[in-house]
Amino acid sequence: MNIKNTAIDTFCDKGMLFTLCALIFVLPVSIAYLDSFAGVTIFLYLLKRINRIVIDWPLTTLKFNLWGKINFFYKGFCPAVNFLNRPLQFLSLAVFISVLFSQYPSLSFFAFIGKFLKCVFLYFSFIEVFKNEKRVQIFVNILLASACITALNGIIQHYTGHDFLKKHAASGERINSSFFSANGLGAYLLPVIGLVVHSLYTSVLRHKSWLLGGLFATLLVILLSCLCWTYSRSSWIGFLIILFVMVLLDRRKSLFVGSLFLIFIFIFLPSLNNVRHLYLISDNTGISAQKTNSLFDLGALLEQGGSGRNCFWKKAVTIIQSSPIYGTGLNTYSRIIKRDPDPNTQWYAHNSYLQLTAETGILGLTSFLWLLFVLLSNGLDYCKRIKNPWSLTILQGTVAGLFGYLVQGFFDNTFYTVQLSVLLWMMIALMVAVTRLEPAL
Fold first, then answer.
1. Distances in whole angstroms, Cα of residue 104 to Cα of each of 132, 189, 251, 421
2. What residues make up the domain containing 48?
3. pLDDT confidence band for 295 (50 / 70 / 90)
4. Number of domains the chain contains
5. 50-70: per-residue pLDDT in tens?
6. Which residues are CB-contacts of 133 (< 8 A; sequence separation ≥ 6)?
7. Which residue, 2, 191, 365, 431, is most buried by CB atoms nearer than 10 A?
């Protein structure tokens, strides 16, 4: 293909840069604005690709047969070659199969177009545009600025009872800022915390930039305060996973991680018992909790922990058993569970992986896990080989944050909320984009 940019290419690139940055900024506040910027981004991506196909078609396809021309047209809409292309193709196929065999075809079809393909094309658009360090840095800075505003909004909600962005009332002692739930806010904070803790370590202990270190330290205090006041146990577990991955990536950070872990032990955990009257792994306090507080008594922990998740997970498993291969259909879970006359079971699975399996079957779950395995294994590998300190910091932060986010998704429907599903794909795209900034040495 001719790679010389035209005026339309340049216009589309700048437009996508703006809309993707605007999208990540408004993500915590407005689904309507989020969808609007997503729609414009995808339109610009398709416009650029169609323009490129039209320009290159006459000369490139001159000697192609019909299949060659179809393949050329198909590849014209695909992203640049990267390690996620093949797993993403299989995931798309698995989700499409679930739509074909859906028990509610119209629901699944519109979800496939409006949710799944939207996120996929946002991922395509991201790696199309963010090809240099300056652009990636702009995106990261806007993400951090948005997260700071969201966290401050949550802190104000903690002290006044209402946030200032959307006038949401706090749910008891738990804050949710501009999100619909405290768990949603906690999940949003995890990838940002992953970026901030690595940036703080790099700015202070490596670059000796105390001004920048002070800014990151202040932001980290704000984010951790907000995370604490969500009292979201699933998000707290995700935070612990972030700390573990930090040490896994660089053992020199053990002392820094240890200090954060002590904050968790002496501030987070006591506040959970005082406010929600819960333990981290048990819903009960007092004598009944002491009897089953062993980590090895998994059956008792499942029965007493998780705020009813044991029941929700059992229900999800029965739905999976009814259609194990290709699932009941994308976006059908809420309809399927309403068939049960018992209102106590009519809840979401509270486990993104179980709900994914229920809707898209083993094919969907396997494809998604393959994509995550390829993504994270490549991310960990690049963390050992990239020499640019800034790229390494962003990549390590994104890898650690994604691990925490994905573990949190095991305890909630994180992947199925509009804002958090887009956030997931933006973090995936950010990781891929950073690995493509420079050859790994």
1. 43, 34, 50, 22
2. 1-78
3. very low
4. 2
5. 988 888 777 777 777 878 778
6. 388, 390, 391, 437
7. 191
Give the number of C-alpha atoms closer than 13 A to the C-alpha of residue 105, restricted to the C-beta side: 2
Per-residue pLDDT tens for 156-190? 999 999 988 888 788 778 999 999 899 999 999 99
Length of the chain (residues): 441
Residues 39 and 185 in one domain: no
Separation CA 397–CA 320 (nearest Å): 35
DSSP type of residue 429: H
Same domain, residue pair 92 and 57: no
Contacts 24+ apart (CB under 8 A), 105-110: 105/329, 107/329, 107/330, 107/331, 107/332, 107/335, 108/329, 108/330, 108/331, 108/332, 110/331
Question: What average pLDDT does the segment 315-326 reach?
Answer: 92
Compute the distance between CA of residue 62 and CA of residue 353 in angstroms, rounded to an integer: 47
Sign of CA dihedral 354, 356, 358, 364: negative
- 10 Å CB burial of residue 121 (0-12, 13-18, 19+) is buried
If you ran DSSP here, which 8-state letter would residue 170 be given? P
Cα first-last separation, the chain? 28
- Phi–psi pair at 171, nearest 5 degrees: -90, 90
| 108 phi/psi in degrees, rounded to 5 | -70, -40
Burial of residue 286, with CB atoms counted within 10 A of its CB: 0-12 exposed, 13-18 middle, 19 or more buried? exposed
Q: Decide: 358 and 312 in contact? Cβ < 8 Å.
A: no
Torsion angle in degrees (nearest 10) through CA of 240, 245, 248, 251: -70
Domain stops at, among 26, 55, 78: 78
> Do residue 120 and residue 267 come from a single domain?
yes
At 204, list the tokens: 């202070």
